[in-house]
């Protein structure tokens, strides 16, 4: 298996789907000749042509709305928001048009909206957000957030082949920082959680970049810590969450997103409701406080959950 | 219009009569407490949806609004399903999941609207994008209102369609009021003039003349099929009822209503039909009978099963695209609906 970065794995999935399925096309701001702000679609216009790698006007609502229109006449559009933050401009088309259509009159809307998300590199309040919870709260939209190159490729493939609107959160901080073996050819990763490391004393539940922070924070704690990588937030793998909690009896949930009503809040509620008897300590959470993600490095580092904060929270729970 | 046969002109009248009769019956059902929520109609605007939809081929795709019931009728949606839709019955087009004209029957090639206007302009743009990408001779058409021209989605769709010369027809249904807001408070420049700055023509037609609307959309469609890009068709009309049934329209000057009453689109087409020797009274009676029977059927239909309320949020299996609907204009005779891609 070749080693790829997280970004290369995403490109690989897109390229393979463009080759395999003529209904698939990509569109977004600067995705064509420029290859995308992060170069995910670098070289695509040369291989697939401008008709299937479309540089759109700067119009996020129209990008999502046009994706819906193309999808309901038989295409499989994959659109890129240049930064996840900009999906706010396309929010209405996603939650009101894409998300509600199948429920209302049984018409499938197979679109993928790629969201380069997350902070950690001084992107500031408009280039650092993790907006996944917005879409978890909107019925009819699947929400995926891979942490590894292998899962990024397999989940994006699954997203493109899914008959529903899917928002695909690809963490910018992982793009070139994380590298791993990626199977060649087309494969799908299931929209379920993955045990990133087995353990028996404590479960740390995370997704996206926080999986790597959780693994690092729990490496040398002198305890057996299980790290559960959610991978998919909608659907949420309730069974895997409850199984891990049943095994360890202690749970820490990590979100890079703002704390209130984050994905982790839903996970905490789920555990409190269904696994209360199995708990041997309070459910703990580490998340970004409810502030815009600040620009200057010391401020940003104070906000986004660090390895140290996660480690401290784990120690507290292990000592409980 | 030479493009319209005698039968076409009667069919245009029949569709408008059907729309008005269904909406009149639905309004009565609303007042009897049989229609939950609110009720919206297109009374006085029948020519806009009927005339425009009539110009579209079987493989074209439509995005109508809440005053465009005629588009659904032209595409072949049965009146009983529409009346059941208003009443939230299981046999309505959405099975009670959405109300009033918030529906699209996928089999008719119609995408259902959302309340956020004019979101569907962006959707129609995407349909047209797909048609162009695949090299298909098809167009998409989206209706929208005067109020909707103030929102960003209008500009995003118009601009995109202009930049990429997409085969899309935008029909501006200018009915003088957005809820209570008159045109003078909505825009400084008539939106039809905006088409030119997005790189394509805008034309204004009498929205109460069904044949004029048909002809404008027919030409816009031909333009789109020839690769010449979008057209904005402004159909000037009047909303003769309130925004919804609860609205007493106190903000509309009575003389304005009186003026537009004289321009009723159905009476106008009836005069044409009469001149062609059509028995208009018989046609009206036929339509009324059809709607009475449809209402009986809808009233007998069950309410949806509460156990189904949480089902169907997500699609499973292979996604099926919109199908082809009726395209009754004689100009499409011999055009065979193709299997969806």
Describe, in short, the structure shown.
The complex is a heterodimer of chains A (320) and B (341). Chain A contains 11 helices and 14 strands. Chain A is of the alpha/beta class and 320 residues long.
Terminus-to-terminus distance of chain A = 43 Å
SSE pattern of chain B: HHEHHHEHEEEHEHEHHH
Q: How many structural domains does the protein architecture of chain B include?
A: 1
Low-confidence segments of chain B, ≥5 residues, pLDDT <50? Answer: none
Residues in helix, % of chain B: 40-55%
Sheet with most strands of chain A: 7 strands, mixed
Structural class of chain A: alpha/beta
CATH fold title of the largest domain in chain A: Rossmann fold
Can you offer a commentary on this structure?
The complex is a heterodimer of chains A (320) and B (341). Chain A is an alpha/beta fold. Chain A folds into two domains: 3-181, Rossmann fold (3-Layer(aba) Sandwich); 194-319, Rossmann fold (3-Layer(aba) Sandwich). Chain A has helices at 6-20, 44-48, 60-72, 91-105, 132-136, 149-161, 209-217, 238-248, 263-274, 297-303, 307-319, and strands spanning 3-5, 24-28, 53-55, 76-80, 112-117, 142-144, 166-171, 179-181, 194-197, 202-206, 225-229, 232-234, 251-258, 284-288. Chain B has 341 residues and is of the alpha/beta class. Chain B has one domain (6-74, 112-285): 3-Layer(aba) Sandwich (Rossmann fold), CATH 3.40.50.970. Chain B contains eleven helices and seven strands. In chain B, the strands form two sheets. Chain B has a five-stranded parallel beta sheet with strand order 1-2-3-7-6, sandwiched between helices. In chain B, strands 4-5 form a two-stranded antiparallel sheet. In chain B, helix 1 (6-31) packs across helix 2 (46-54) and helix 1 (6-31) runs parallel beside helix 4 (79-86). The longest helix of chain B is centred in the first third of the chain and has 26 residues, at 6-31. The interface between A and B is large, with 43 and 50 residues.
């Amino acid at each position: 298996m070749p080693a790829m970065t997280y970004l290369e794995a995403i490109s690989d999935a897109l390229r393979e789907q463009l080759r395999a399925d003529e209904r698939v096309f990509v569109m977004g701001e600067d995705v064509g000749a420029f290859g995308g702000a992060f170069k995910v679609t670098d070289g695509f216009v040369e291989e697939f042509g401008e008709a299937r790698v479309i540089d759109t006007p700067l119009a996020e609502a129209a990008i999502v709305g046009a994706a819906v229109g193309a999808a309901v006449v038989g295409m499989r559009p994959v659109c890129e928001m240049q930064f996840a933050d900009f999906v706010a401009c396309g929010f209405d088309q996603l939650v009101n048009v894409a998300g509600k259509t199948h429920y209302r009159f049984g018409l499938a809307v197979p679109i993928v909206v790629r969201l380069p998300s997350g902070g950690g590199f001084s992107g500031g309040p408009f280039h650092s957000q993790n907006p996944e919870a917005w879409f978890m709260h909107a019925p009819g939209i699947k929400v995926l957030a891979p942490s590894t190159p292998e899962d990024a490729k397999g989940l994006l493939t699954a997203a493109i082949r899914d008959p529903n609107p899917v928002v695909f959160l690809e963490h910018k901080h992982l793009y070139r920082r994380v590298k791993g073996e990626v199977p060649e050819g087309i494969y799908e990763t299931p929209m379920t959680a993955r045990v990133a490391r087995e353990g028996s004393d404590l479960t740390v539940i995370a997704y996206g970049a926080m999986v790597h922070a959780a693994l690092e924070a729990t490496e040398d704690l002198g305890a057996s810590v299980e790290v559960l990588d959610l991978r998919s937030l909608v659907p949420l793998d309730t069974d895997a969450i409850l199984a891990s909690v049943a095994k360890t009896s202690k749970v820490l949930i990590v979100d890079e997103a703002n704390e209130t009503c984050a994905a982790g809040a839903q996970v905490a509620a789920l555990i409190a409701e269904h696994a209360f008897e199995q708990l041997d300590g309070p459910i703990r959470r580490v998340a970004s406080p409810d502030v815009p993600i600040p620009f200057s490095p010391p401020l940003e580092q104070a906000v986004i959950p660090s390895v140290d904060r996660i480690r401290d929270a784990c120690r507290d729970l292990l000592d409980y | 219009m030479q493009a319209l046969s005698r039968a076409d002109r009667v069919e245009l009248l029949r569709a408008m009569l059907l729309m008005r009769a269904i909406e009149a019956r639905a309004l009565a059902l609303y007042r009897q407490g049989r229609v939950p929520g609110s009720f919206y109609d297109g009374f006085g605007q029948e020519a806009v949806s009927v005339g425009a939809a009539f110009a579209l081929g079987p493989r074209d795709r439509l995005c109508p609004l809440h005053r465009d019931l005629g588009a659904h009728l032209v595409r072949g949606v049965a009146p009983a399903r529409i009346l059941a839709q208003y009443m939230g019955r299981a046999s309505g087009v959405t099975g009670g999941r959405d109300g009033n004209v918030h529906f699209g029957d996928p089999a008719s090639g119609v995408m259902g609207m959302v309340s956020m206007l004019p979101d569907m302009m962006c959707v129609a743009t995407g349909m047209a994008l797909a048609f162009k990408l695949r090299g298909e001779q098809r167009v998409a058409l989206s209706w929208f209102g005067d109020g909707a021209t103030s929102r960003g989605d209008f500009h995003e769709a118009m601009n995109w369609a202009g930049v990429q010369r997409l085969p899309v027809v935008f029909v501006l249904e200018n009915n003088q009021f957005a809820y209570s807001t008159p045109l003078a408070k909505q825009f400084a420049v008539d939106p039809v003039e905006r088409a030119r700055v997005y790189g394509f023509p805008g034309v204004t037609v009498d929205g109460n003349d069904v044949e004029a609307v048909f002809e404008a959309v027919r030409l816009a469609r031909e333009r789109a099929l020839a690769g010449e890009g979008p057209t904005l068709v402004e159909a000037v009309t009047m909303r003769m009822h309130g925004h919804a049934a609860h609205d007493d329209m106190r903000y509309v000057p009575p003389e304005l209503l009186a003026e537009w009453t004289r321009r009723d689109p159905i009476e106008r087409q009836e005069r044409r039909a009469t001149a062609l020797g059509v028995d208009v009274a018989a046609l009206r009676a036929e339509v009324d009978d059809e709607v009475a029977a449809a209402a009986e059927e809808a009233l007998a239909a069950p309410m949806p099963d509460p156990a189904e309320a949480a089902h169907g949020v997500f699609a499973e299996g292979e996604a099926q695209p919109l199908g082809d609907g009726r395209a009754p204009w004689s100009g499409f005779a011999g055009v065979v609906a193709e299997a969806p891609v």
